[in-house]
Amino acid sequence: MAIKNDRLLSDFNRDLKLKGFNVWQIESDSNATRIYSRKDFYKICLTTGKSIIHYADRSFEAEGTVLFFGNPHVPYSWETLSTTYMGYTCLFSGDFLKSADRSDSLQQSPLFKIGGTPILMMTEQQRLFLNGIFEKMIEEQQTTYAYKDDLIRNYINLIIHEALKMQPSANFNQHKNALSRITAVFLELLERQFPIETAERPLTMNTAHDYAKALSIHVNYLNKAVKETTGKSTTTHIAERIVREAKALLHHTDWNVAEIAYALGFEYPSYFNNFFRKITGTNPGAFRETVV
């Protein structure tokens, strides 16, 4: 059974990456909400049950039907508390939605921002209406209609617009230890930037300011939280993770040093060489020779 489930998950992720979207129904007592593991897809969930959703540095306990918007750049986790859990899930890439007009402004909406309101409680009437939209997406996903991508994009945008008209949930709870929670969020967000799989999609977040901006907090607050919680500075964590990725790329790929430098967000290979030498005591070329 485990082998079959692994194969289904592999097929699911392959199809998702190929098409840029996937939508499916969460059935009673299923683990469907737990199989999502891709870090580069936006997520919309319509679920009925009891759960606790941890989103950035806040938590939300829900019982009933909720509409949830997940941003791949905002760490979150989901604890299912009820024995039955039903609903729908839709995943889509930023590139998939960009084909639609005004997608950029929608993705900058409060629904997808870390300081926003990504969870909304649904009435029975709203649940039935959104159920119908998800069912239409599932049905359309199976067709050979030439413009089905455009149609599914319209359905996604309809869900987003319906959510923007609703009153967001206000009963988020701040984590008991705000500094430790924001540190955990930062470390998870840092890890989500890796691995670097292609030089065409380079690392874009490589400073404390980048992460503070993504988390919608002041960089001084981030630095204080990380330093007090871990004993290391934000910059040190970022540098150590970049070096670890650099070593992996030098060891496991045939990319030249310049390609690795650009993939890791360095403007010039010389900057990468100096950075690598400062932390490791050797240059990238010499390191590669020691692991070959």
Automatic annotation (TrEMBL):
Sorted UniProt keywords: DNA-binding, Transcription, Transcription regulation
SUPFAM superfamilies recorded: Homeodomain-like (SSF46689), Regulatory protein AraC (SSF51215)
Ranges for domain HTH araC/xylS-type: 180-290
InterPro entries in the record: Homeodomain-like_sf (IPR009057), HTH-like (IPR037923), HTH_AraC (IPR018060), Tscrpt_reg_AraC-type_HTH (IPR020449)
Pfam families according to UniProt: HTH_18
PROSITE patterns, A to Z: HTH_ARAC_FAMILY_2
Protein name, per record: Helix-turn-helix domain-containing protein
Biological classification of the source: Bacteria, Pseudomonadati, Bacteroidota, Chitinophagia, Chitinophagales
